[in-house]
What we know:
The complex is a heterodimer. By secondary structure, chain A is α/β, with parallel strands linked by helices. Chain A contains 10 helices and 7 strands. In chain A, α1 crosses α8, α3 runs parallel beside α5 and α4 packs across α5 (100-108).
Amino acid sequence: MAIEKKAPELMNYSLFCGGCGHGVLLRLICECLEEYGLDKKTIAAIGVGCSCHLKSGISIDLIQSPHGRAAAVATGIRRAEPDKFVFTYQGDGDAYNIGIAETLNAAYRNENICVFTVNNGNFGMTGQKTATSPSGRNCDLTGIPIKVPELIAYSFTPAYVARGAVTTPAEINKLKGYIKNAFEAQLNNEGYSMVEIMCSCPTNWNLPPIAARQRLIDEVIPYYGLGEIKKRGV
Amino acid sequence: MGDMVKGNIAMAEAAMRAGAEIYAGYPITPSTETMEYLSGRMPELGRTFIQAESELAGINIVMGVSACGHRVLTASSGPGISLKQEGISYMNQMNFPAVILNVVRWGNGLGALNGAQTDYHRETRGGGNGDYRNIILCPSTIQEGVDLMYEAFDIAEKYRCIVEIMTESGLGQMMEPCDYPEFREIKRCDWGLDGTYKVRRGDFLGRDLQKESDVYIAKVRAMRENEQRWEALYTEDAEYVFVAFGLPGRAVEGIVQELRANGEKVGFIRPITAWPYPEKAFEELAAKNKNLKGFISVETNGEGQMVDDVALYAKKYGMGSVPVYALAYVCDIPKDDTLKADFARIKDGEIKEVY
């Protein structure tokens, strides 16, 4: 028997391209906000680029941060409003290139925030390469694709770090589990959590949505690997 | 009179008494004592002090605090304020108030530690991208710095704007006796984000930019109308009116008194707000003074920056034919003898007008 799952009320209209992973991730975050009863006590700091679409995509309080600075803005919110649930939502270019200083320093301070970064290997709004782009660039000159979750998990003392993917229903379910762990880490005052979400970007990859997803599975995810990188309480 | 206290520390303490709950920033000399003092004082008061990794992070932390309706302070010096401009522009876009202390040091780039007024153009014209203004308060004594800092938070919340105290290295570093105001009760602004999504965002794609701009400019006009501050001396019959702010303003005031005692018909305008520029002082002067032979802008930068505003507002109030001179002394505080000698050179026609 088919089960119809009701979309979370927090979800608003989506401006993302067809086949983009942002929409699925946004839905997972909205589901979690409702399941934990946080829909009326959350303040988010969002990045620039495709993340801007959260302004219309989700009905919660949020601040449009300058490019790359969401973790610093979230730090301000967290310190000012200790009883609220605070998360950032950024792309890989935002969090790992232009904002790597703010991203790493918030993790280093172990700020009690959740950081969600969508890794689709490019600056989605403008299309240029990021530090996570696995191909299309000379790694001798531009560096090998960066694994920021591992950097944070192994260098600092965060509460929880994981990498999930928007590829198959099974992976999406696992990703929701990672997001829930990140939520619980903050709610239990365990400290900083980061979940990186591997997504395809059919528009900038110049591939149809299904082929883009297949490339993500065949070429990108094998390089990065999925799973929990720093488990809670370990 | 209260105890002798250093300018940077006095203004930091005034911010605490005004109810600043959080400080976030990164130090730059000559503003550093502000941050050093607060690193101890804020925990003592049960408030939050955050040493940010950079000025960028500092202003963005300030943005997050301000968005939630809490009083927040950051401080730096010229180069650090440069780094904060992105955040200041964003905060103007979202009407988030904050108070910023800029203890100006001389120069471009890294510059030097000497006090100067080299940041005048940037501060009075906005500084970052966009079409905005910040209120710029310029004390000439430590007591005035304390009083302005105390009031700055009210002004920032009244208009939901950025208020900057723009002072110089000398005032931040020197000591004077000063009295502190009483501690204010800490209150959170009720418009602040509280997680309930009580203020719904407009349509991301269907923005009415004419309307957004009109609303913002109405605020700018109210600020310009209501917040001009200045001190004026002997402007009604002066032949030459000196215009100077900050520590040079204080030095020039002394010279004006001395020249007056010697029979020279000189007057003085000391802008306390660099923006909004105290154009009403020029309007009043134009209405009653028929003897005017020149305006003399005294500044510590390369060739005068405020002199542009002096000329603009002289023109606006019908004094466009009056010569406007600039005495620019690069840095520190101009010496009395130098000022008097250069005034004589202006009268002798040796120094030409800028406008």
